[in-house]
Amino acid sequence: MGRPAMKKRKLNQSATEEVVFDPSARQEYLTGFHKRKVQRTKAAQEAAVQRARQERVEDRKKLREERKADLERHVKEVNALLPGRSLAPEAEDSDEKDEEAHEWNGIGEVVPEAIDHEAEYIDEDKYTTVTVEEIDVSRDGISRLRGSDDEEEDQKEAADSREPVQLSNTKKPPGKRDKDRKPKKKKKTFRYESPAERKMNRLKVRAKNSKAAQARRGD
Predict the structure, then answer these.
(1) Where is the stretch described as Disordered (predicted)?
(2) What's the CA gap between 145 and 134, in Å, rounded?
């Protein structure tokens, strides 16, 4: 067997004919290490912020889905406990729309019903009568709505209450009042004793004590 034929290498037909040296590109490459590092750091921070934003969006979406599922489950449980009533969200929305469709004509005049009456309550040996009267609320206060006779009585009572009341003058005459007063005691002024005075007082106390001791011995 002969040797296998050697593969012939194809020559590169598109070889670069000329290499041009660019000093400005070389200068930018050699002096741009810090700049490129800052750009990479900034790109990484922007990518991290974008990922965090995307995670928050996904978390909120997941939370909404969980709340919706919990609400649907709660509605089903309530519907199961209350047969004949439906608390579905669609029904609630339709009811709200129907209420909004009706025209609101304001609050009509309400005619108050008479509530003046008496009620009797009997409980074994106890007998109680309760009188319910209508009241009128105004700026002057709360007043009861009664007949003219009661109003006249109230006016008389108010006039009597407005009459001046004379107070008895029980003041004592000035001379007697001065006599009843007790004389004020003068406050004793406190002063510190000098060393000589303290020494004399100690000697007096000692002499007095010695005399008393001698008198006891003589007895």
Answers:
(1) 36-109, 135-219
(2) 6
